[in-house]
Amino acid sequence: MNTKRRDFLKTAAIASAGTIVAPGMGFAKSKNEKVKLAFIGTGARGIWHLNNALLREDTEVVAICDTDDNAIKNALKYVEKHGKKKPQIFGKNELDYRNMLDLKEVQGVIISTPWVWHTPMSVDSMKAGKFTGVEVSAAMTLQECWDLVNVHEETGSHLMILENVCYRRDVMAVLQMVREGLFGESMHARCGYQHDLRNVKFNNGVDIYGGGVEFGEKGASEAKWRTHHSLHKNGDLYPTHGAGPVATYMDINRGNKFDTISSFATKARGLNEYIIEKGGKDHPNANLPWKLGDIVTSTISTANGETIIVTHDTNLPRPYSLGFRFQGTKGLWEHEDGYSAKHGNLMYIDGQTKPHQWDDAKQWLDKYDHPLWAKYGETATGAGHGGMDFFVMHDFVNSIKHNIAPPLDAYDAAAWSAITPLSERSIEEGGAVQHFPDFTRGKWFKREPIFGKNEVYL
């Protein structure tokens, strides 16, 4: 961010962030009133959100929807375990969620379904006047990205993208360091989703993870739907775990914006080899023409002159890593998940660390622990994904309570999710540069960064 822009933002009031009040949107009238939530999708991801809502004293789960009877049964076990009232059940068909949205008492809706349903369900939920939380990615096409923004603006209903990695403790500590100027002016970042998903994309139709090489109707859980995207699409299919945190560092949509993207993909080999290894060369899936390149690399430029490298790597054997790097004019942070702290979590601050030598990042992350984690870290333990999921639900519920815009909003959902269709188009055109739409319609220049700063949450 340039100096003049930084000075302008420092003098702007946080309250000017653009809070929109939805006409007729229900919200808690007092801190003692429970926020009434409904859940669409109670599978592997949705059950975490449901459990975290059930753990809170300020929420009431009034309805759940899922077309899978086993998912409903499992969800009800959680409700019973927490001693809560049985919610209304929906899911007799794929559109029964709309009947759930007709419930006047529902204030907030959490959507944790297969990707193709995220935008249609979010649009319907916002049109019904509900405060909507949607899992990642929020949209699969540019038109869907615009649908989320347009419906939010037309209805005044809020949308929050439920990107939990933005709330990871070390990620938020680095955000604190960025805002305190430790890294100087922002220059470059690296991030991605590098996760061996072969035993998620394929299983035996019974177990969630592995045990076979089936997918689609013969698969279970995510293998029923996620794998089809690898067969038919070639692009960064899951960008927000990395791009979301980096976007908060670089004030994307709030003083800065994604400008261009250029993407390339390797050949596709990993899934074929996995099928042959686990199921044999004569298995019906062994010779399928997988479209998704094993490694997709995208380079993004921003309006303020930074660059971001985003990597998608889910088809090859490797340890998990989001591959974070954030670099400014005064230093940088490098983190490779899965490595030891000495070799994989590193910090260098010019003039404060030894010249040309890395520091173990832990001492810096401890020193700049974000106020949210300092206050709620003990409570967050056990909430899922190292405590990140607690903060996702915490911000979602508190936004409803105070009827304010969420810290990760519809514009963020659109900009981050747009990486998928734009990377697909760039790869199809031989790496040609694609331009990000300005989903804020010019408002990005004056919008104030609020993620992790709103006093309501502290």
From TrEMBL:
Domain of life: Bacteria
InterPro entries: Gfo/Idh/MocA-like_OxRdtase_N, Gfo/Idh/MocA_oxidrdct_glycsds, Glyco_hydro_109_C, NAD(P)-bd_dom_sf, TAT_signal
Keywords on record: Glycosidase, Hydrolase, NAD
Domain (Glycosyl hydrolase 109 C-terminal): residue spans on this chain: 172-360
Domain Gfo/Idh/MocA-like oxidoreductase N-terminal span(s) in chain numbering: 36-160
Keyword Hydrolase belongs to the record: yes
Cofactor: NAD(+)
Family: Belongs to the Gfo/Idh/MocA family. Glycosyl hydrolase 109 subfamily.
Name used for this protein in its record: Gfo/Idh/MocA family oxidoreductase
Organism of this sequence: Flammeovirga kamogawensis
